[in-house]
Specification:
85% of the residues lie in helices and 0% in strands. By secondary structure, the protein is mainly α. Helix 4 packs parallel to helix 11 (191-205). The protein starts with a helix and ends with a helix.
Amino acid sequence: MYVGITLACLAFLFYTPQISAALNASFGAVPPVVTVLIPYIFGCIGMLVWGRVADRELWDAMVNGKVLLLALNYFGIVAASLGMLYFIPQIIKGMGNFSNLQVGWLTMIPYICGGIGMVVWGRVSDAMNERRWNLLAACVLSTVGLVIAGLAMDGKLGSSWVALIGMSIAAMGFYGSKGPFFAMPPIFLSGTALAGGFAWINSIGN
């Protein structure tokens, strides 16, 4: 069944142009995001139906309050980190007359910080054998970084270089949160429920 759901979603992705044309012909101008979301919507429906009908553990995981809270948390992390991804090149362009190549090199700075944060925070979380407070601290750090970047871009806190520093701090929080975050579902799920929980969290988050 899971293989069937996967193949169906891949078929939707393959025939996206035809589906988009059919939707536009039937309903007028349909936003592209609607077409892109169709495979994910059908995949989620398929998982829900299959979990309800044939796999009780999967269903229990998908309606588990802790799993839904983690999915909501992950949605916030992904949404904020994608916003940062989109705006970093514009922020760097505002820092000076840089070429596209130079913008690319400077864009690496926050993600280098994020990579370091992910490794270090994961080791700290393991050493403490603690997940929830480490996840909270990482999310708070990323929020502080985004606030610094926003104030700097608005001219209330230094220059665009300060905004880049803020984005680097935010990246450390975003990527530092991943270790504690993905170590939490195995605490209260196992087997099929764990696999379904991870899939559900990623589906909602992304």
